[in-house]
Amino acid sequence: MIDTHAHLDFAEFDLDRDTVVQRMHSVGVNNLIIPGVSPQHWHKQLAVAAQYQTYFALGIHPWFCPENVDAGILALTSKVAALLECPRFVAIGECGLDKLYSATWPQQLAFFEAQLTLAKSVNLPVIIHSVKAHPEVLACLKKYQLPRGGVIHAFSGSVEIAQEYIKLGFKLGIGGLIMNPNAKKLLKTVTELPLEHLILETDSPAMTPINVTEKRNQPANLVLFIDKIATLQKKSSVLISEHLMSNAMQLFDL
């Protein structure tokens, strides 16, 4: 299995990162993708990815948009060019739009469009953060038409919204929210959608499943989501695990 979205570089893991990785391996999660969030975070992110030989993405998250848009885009473009030949560099992102951070909306939009342009130019998929912004994100994706598509991270929307993304070549990242019985829209979507449109992620250390006592999420929790999807789709956990692993490998060319 692969956790397609885990911020293993974040400070929450500084005291016991080795143990977290060992636990992940012990339950069959053999690798993960660390998304990028900002120029200030890249150095540590890349060091952690190198230490544990994990995959990584490079991007600027809507929560961390630098004030100087041109300088931020230049920094990202230069970093991507320098790392493009690294086999563990698999995507652009985490990028996107978040209406809960409305004060930075103009910068978010500028960085998002720049990263879609970059993803297209280097032929990589994108990892997209979309909060209260599906119409705007969809409009951008229709405008840029990325050949490699990508993933809508932490998807929680309806079947109808899911199908709009699928038409554009995107998969849906399914994580801890699926364990919440009140996430009725997401549960319906995962029950009804064919498996080829889903990939697994934890968003560690955030988005801890409701049924886990430890406050911090971690990649080992991925196995819980497989069992839940198996229950919803009335299929075996082994089939779910194999199919979603195959989806991730195909999307990120692993």
What do these coordinates show?
- It comes from Shewanella scandinavica.
- GO terms for molecular function: hydrolase activity.
- Belongs to the metallo-dependent hydrolases superfamily. TatD-type hydrolase family.
- InterPro entries: DNase_TatD-rel_CS (IPR018228), Metal_Hydrolase (IPR032466), TatD-like (IPR001130).
- This is TatD family hydrolase.
- It is a single chain.
- The chain has an 8-stranded parallel β-sheet, sandwiched between helices.
- The protein has helices at 17-26, 39-52, 69-83, 105-122, 134-144, 159-167, 184-192, 222-233, 237-252; strands at 2-3, 31-34, 55-58, 89-98, 126-131, 150-152, 170-174, 198-200.
- The two termini are 12 Å apart.
- The protein is globular, with a radius of gyration of 17 Å.
- The model has no long low-confidence stretch (mean pLDDT 97).
- By secondary structure, it is an alpha/beta fold.
- Helix 3 packs parallel to helix 4 and helix 8 crosses helix 9 (237-252).
Helix and strand arrangement:
Elements: E1 2-3, H1 17-26, E2 31-34, H2 39-52, E3 55-58, H3 69-83, E4 89-98, H4 105-122, E5 126-131, H5 134-144, E6 150-152, H6 159-167, E7 170-174, H7 184-192, E8 198-200, H8 222-233, H9 237-252
Parallel strand pairs: 1-2, 2-3, 3-4, 4-5, 5-6, 6-7, 7-8
